[in-house]
User: Fold these one by one.
Assistant:
Number 1:
Amino acid sequence: MGTSGRRRTALAGLVLALATGCSSASHPSPPTGVDGLVIPTPSVDADDFVTGVDNPWLPLPVGATWRYDVTGSGAGTAVATARQGPEVEGVATTALRTVTTPEGGGRRTVTTDLYAQDEAGNVWWLGREGEWRAGEDGARAGLAMAAHPRQGDGYRQAYLPGEVDVRAEVLGVDLERTLPVGELDGLVAVTVTEATTGLTTRAWYAEGIGLVARDTVAGGPETQLGLVAYDEPQR
């Protein structure tokens, strides 16, 4: 065989190898981050949701309590408690009630947020009592935490036309931070911006615990929230 013949044979073998490699490629990986999700969702289907919220980064077992120190502007304490919430568009929710008490015993503020988890493990924010609720007045459920957070993903957490527009971006997924409870690693950090007010905060989540810290970044008084205790529900 001449030199040109050997080259043609080698080239043919290379093409065959590439073709074989393509045909034997593994199946696509399952969706991660926000892949395949419509955010905010125009409507929720109760058949797509499960009972309870056990996402590793935002677990909300009914009866659990998170206690935080609040420093900077509005210093004081905050206590969040998970409890059973009302149905929203036919979906059973978990309500997270947060009571913030300023130093010196001033006027408390109370917020109650409603969450639900889909079958894939994504946690959706379905409303805040007294402010908005998915399915009412054009409000849509947003993503509170993906089943598999991915750095760089951006999405809406809450949306009510003209009134509520909360946008988030995953800053990192393997970060470290020192908090009142000690040094934590493997944290997920999410930057959150309230588009209607310009307030930007950064929230930090620990696996198996949930929110462990939140800092004001821009658009409002400097405030820091840091976890001091997490009490799991008694069995």
Number 2:
Amino acid sequence: MIVDKNFITDKQKEFIDKIFSNQDVPFYYHTDAAHNDGLVHFVHHIIKDYKINSDLFELLAKDIFINYCKQNNIKYTKIYRCAINVCFPLNKIKTCNIHTDHTFDYKHLLIYLNDSDGETVLLEDDKETEKIRITPEKYKGVMFNKCWHYHVLPTTLDRKVLVYTFD
């Protein structure tokens, strides 16, 4: 796992903050975060079904991703998925389902876009034993290999994450 809190430029931070302060970026209502869990959230797909799906591609899916990879000496060949996910506290559901994002090997890069108490939990192959809990901190990037994982819903406000899967 690689954690980096210093790879996003001030200009990129300003752009990210504006995404949530204006109404120019569409977010879509979804009722399934991970394999039929019924978790209500909003998503903006930047790369979906392996194709560019948003005008945010250049800055978010390309520039910020490349900054992270260069700074942390990570080689990559392809981004499979990139999306901004926003979830909220729900009364009945406390976590999304335990899952992996793809059936094939890949890497994750999560970039937290706000401070939140909605942790990401990485699990061992038995799907029960915790490897690590990652606390969201604004602009923290965390890269890890494919593994079983889930996230906890925040208890106040929202949890905003820029999610990449790549090889």
